[in-house]
Specification:
alpha+beta; membrane; 4-stranded mixed β-sheet; pentosyltransferase activity; 554 residues; 7% strand; single chain; Glycosyl transferase family 39
Length: 554
């Protein structure tokens, strides 16, 4: 090939990439929202696909629910189990299948933020609010982990938008009533917190004279009642199970017996946790804007009052509650979308809240910079810290996402060894809590149903306690996983002719942190005299306990 031909080939390649780059720029300029959502979804799905991290205990726990579909569960409504069932039925039981809905719901939920910001102010405000929320560490994590917050927050922001659209007409159109009803109902099936939507919008209507007449709207009341009808199956299920979900929910608000100093430390943890979840600059900007909105409430427009009632009011209530008892950092998650939309409007000069910041452009730049840095650090902490000397340290946020697969692998080796000796795979029972129970169920081959046998005096502490215990007498050999240094439950020990420790399970998480369990081989009394088959007849199918028909409380 001559020099001229080489030069021509290089020029053609360069021209191709230039045209491609200019084409991408034109597409982004013409469709910025679609480009933003598409790129974000690609990054999030790619991270889930290639992430080496295990499911956290909550994820495998909710996944285990999906194998026994119902209208209610011990601590939560059924939506999380239904979504897990749909995803894993289509894609198989894998980490990607479990977490994909979180990425889809978290990313597409930003579209509702964009549409609401555009409806109230302009498209630039909507896009800024969606982008700032997407860059918060909390939204990054909630789009990676499949917990109940993924469907709940999607339904919350969708209902925010649809309800506002209802109020744009003197007589709310039936289609907007229907969409509002749908998302409120699905939100109620996702998390009990969705009930807070009703008093908050009621407060907004009372506090806004221009919208107060909607309190007499039959369509508005019909929408509210119709959405509450979604709870009928959940209420009926709770009626059948002694109102166990209500009892569990009420326990979050029961009186705490800790000292004042201990409660102050908890409040400080919650307070600074919110700064970390939202990112420091954006959280500060949102708080300043909300305080300014409270001070100038009489001058606020209807849309600003709506955003304030759906963000500032519940935030104050939650922070007051956090001063009296321990709260999880995700409790205020639904408050921030409306607050960020209002803050974005103020920073861009689209709000009636003027002169809140002397240099709004300066604050906007720092929101971008710190948000982008925080999001990048979140991904880095998830992927880099576990392989660094910081593994297991207080800054390692991945300890909950590591060690479960390795524990299951160690247990599988013990299981194979016992099967080779005794001629069949033993029944698995866990007495070590729901975390290891659900992890073994997910990570062991063939996903066996692993029953949890709680200590007799513990009562009902999780969904596993509501499912029937296995018939121990029908099994020849049982492997029990229990915490190190703890006795077997008395009721389980009484079923045994003999038992002996056979292995220890230990996985180091770095530093001094580890997961440690003990495996006990238990011979039921009814099987102590039965003949043992030869090792050549080993059944290679994991033993599954019978599915329950009518769960009973203990």
């Amino acid at each position: 090939m001559t020099m001229t031909e080489n030069t021509g080939s290089t020029s053609a390649t360069s021209s191709f990439w230039q045209r491609t780059w200019h084409g991408l720029q034109a597409t982004v300029n013409a469709h910025p929202v679609a480009a933003f959502i598409g790129l974000l979804l690609l990054v999030r799905c790619g991270f889930i696909l290639f992430s080496p991290l295990d499911l956290i205990a909550d994820e495998s726990y909710y996944w285990d629910w999906s194998r026994r579909l119902d209208y209610g569960y011990y601590s939560k409504p059924p939506m999380i189990a239904w979504i897990n069932w749909l995803s894993t039925s289509l894609l198989g039981s894998s980490e990607f299948a479990v977490r994909l809905p979180a990425a889809l719901l978290g990313t597409f939920g930003l579209l509702w933020i964009y549409y609401l910001g555009r409806q109230m102010f302009d498209s630039k405000t909507g896009l800024l609010a969606a982008a700032l929320l997407a860059l918060t560490p909390g939204q990054t994590a909630l789009s990676f982990l499949m917990t109940i917050d993924a469907p709940f927050l999607f339904c919350w922001v969708a209902a925010l938008y649809c309800f506002w659209q209802m109020l744009q007409h003197e007589r709310p159109p039936l289609y907007w009533c229907g969409f509002t009803m749908l998302f409120l109902g699905l939100g109620l099936l996702s998390k009990q917190t969705m009930l807070g939507f009703f008093p908050l919008v009621g407060l907004f209507l009372l506090a806004t004279p221009a919208k107060r007449h909607f309190l007499l709207s039959g369509r508005l009341w019909g929408t509210a009642v119709a959405s509450l009808m979604f709870l009928i199956p959940v209420v009926y299920w709770n009626y059948q199970h002694d109102w166990i979900t209500l009892e569990h929910t009420a326990s979050h608000f029961s009186d705490s017996s800790v000292t004042y100093w201990k409660q102050f430390v908890r409040f400080a943890e919650f307070f600074f946790g919110q700064i970390g979840v939202v990112s420091p600059v954006l959280w500060g900007v949102v708080c300043v804007v909300l305080l300014a909105a409270f001070r100038r409430f009489p001058q606020l427009k209807a849309e600003e009052r709506y955003l304030l009632c759906m963000s500032g009011v519940p935030l104050i209530a939650i922070f007051c509650l956090s001063a009296t008892r321990r709260l999880e950092p995700n409790w205020p998650a639904a408050c921030y979308p409306a607050g960020v939309i209002l803050a974005s409007a103020v920073l861009l000069g689209r709000s009636s809240l003027l002169n809140v910041f002397q240099r709004p452009t300066h604050h906007l730049k720092w929101c971008w910079r710190v948000g982008l840095t925080g999001s990048a650090l979140t991904y880095a902490a998830i992927t880099i810290v576990p392989a660094s000397p910081l593994a297991g340290s207080p800054v390692d946020i991945t300890c909950r996402l590591r060690g479960w697969r390795e524990l299951a692998h160690q247990f599988e080796s013990v299981q194979e060894q016992q099967a080779g000796v005794n001629g069949e795979y033993p029944l698995i029972i866990s007495t070590a809590g729901r975390d290891i129970t659900s992890a073994l169920a997910f990570y062991l081959p063939q996903n066996p149903l692993v029953p949890f046998w709680n200590h007799d005096e513990a009562g009902v502490t999780c969904q596993y306690d509501m499912w029937d215990r296995p018939d121990v007498a029908s099994h020849r050999d049982i492997l029990v996983v229990k915490p190190e240094g703890t006795p077997l439950p008395v009721s389980l020990e009484q079923t045994a002719a003999s038992w002996e420790p056979v292995a220890d399970l230990n996985v180091s998480l770095g530093g001094n942190r580890q997961r440690a369990y003990q495996v006990i081989r238990l011979i039921p009394a009814s099987a102590s005299t039965a003949a043992t088959p030869s090792a050549d007849s080993v059944d290679k199918t994991a033993t599954l306990p019978d599915q329950p028909t009518s769960p009973t409380l203990r």
